[in-house]
Amino acid sequence: MSSGQQVLIEPPSAAAPSQFAEIFRNGLWKQNPGLVQLLGLCPTLAMTTSLVNGFSLGLMTAIVMAASNASVSPIRHYVPSEIRIPVFILIIAALVTVIDLGMHAYLHTLHGVLGIFIPLIVTNCIVLARVEAFAAKNEVAPSAFDGWMMGFGLALVLAVLGGVRELLGAGTLFSGIDLVFGVQAKQWVWHMGDYQGFLLAILPPGAFFGLGSLIAIRNILERRAAAKLAKSAMRAS
What does the pLDDT read at residue 98? Predict the structure, then answer.
């Protein structure tokens, strides 16, 4: 290198948000299946009569989604596009069967409460949507994480909706937790004094009112955040 030549060293650019951080935000907030995409409304409205029921179903869905995405991603280049949907559904059905049999063996009472909604995870559009939209186009690790975060985001919505409906409708929280942790867990149930409950909250209309309220709260928070960001941009300019 001659003495007349100069080496220009560019300052390091700001690192873009990692893919996993973006997946985390999408699953919990930006693309939450229960509040934004509005997928899987049938189990969302039917099984949220209590916090335990809602979160249990959501957690099973998250496990299936993570396993489905992790299973589809490695074979995405080997499945012909003409039959990809039947193959994906077959994989999802096999995983749901494993979950269903496992719950029947080790969480039999809870399995009886959730009933048909465990096998129906196979037909839940959330699972197939993430397999088709993400796992079929990305590597195994981000695909599995995407499935888990989307499912966990839905589980949190089901837990909050179920908790609110249970609290307003029956005046309790964590009712049925003994179905998961045994009879000794009955003492964990919280009771709201002499409150008699508001029947509408645990009836089907209460599910619609509750979900609509959660969606409205999320939209309000999102608009406020966007307004603050716009004001900050105007001040900076």
Answer: 95
Asked whether the CA dihedral 54, 59, 62, 64 is positive or negative, the reply is: negative
Query: What share of the chain has pLDDT > 70, as a percent?
Result: 93
Cα(159)–Cα(57) distance, rounded to whole angstroms?
Answer: 9
Give me the residue spans of the domains in the chain: 48-210
Tens of pLDDT, residue by residue over 105-160, are 998 898 998 988 999 899 888 999 999 999 999 999 999 999 999 999 999 999 99
Would you say 201 and 210 are in contact if contact means Cβ atoms under 8 Å apart?
yes
| One-letter-per-residue 3-state SS of the chain | CCCCCCCCCCCCCCCCCCHHHHHHHHHHHHCCHHHHHCCCHHHHHHCCCCHHHHHHHHHHHHHHHHHHHHHHHHHCCCCCHHHHHHHHHHHHHHHHHHHHHHHHHHCHHHHHHHHHHCHHHHHCHHHHHHHHHCHHHCCHHHHHHHHHHHHHHHHHHHHHHHHHHHHHHHCEECCCCHHHHCHHHHHHCEECCCCCCCHHHHCHHHHHHHHHHHHHHHHHHHHHHHHHHHHHHHHHC
Over the chain, what is the mean pLDDT?
A: 90
Collect all residues with Cβ–Cβ distance below 8 Å to 189 and sequence separation of at least 6.
172, 173, 174, 175, 177
* CA angle, residues 104, 109, 114, in degrees to nearest 5: 80
Instruction: Give ∠ CA 221-224-225 in degrees, rounded to 5.
Output: 85
Structure confidence at residue 84 (pLDDT): 93
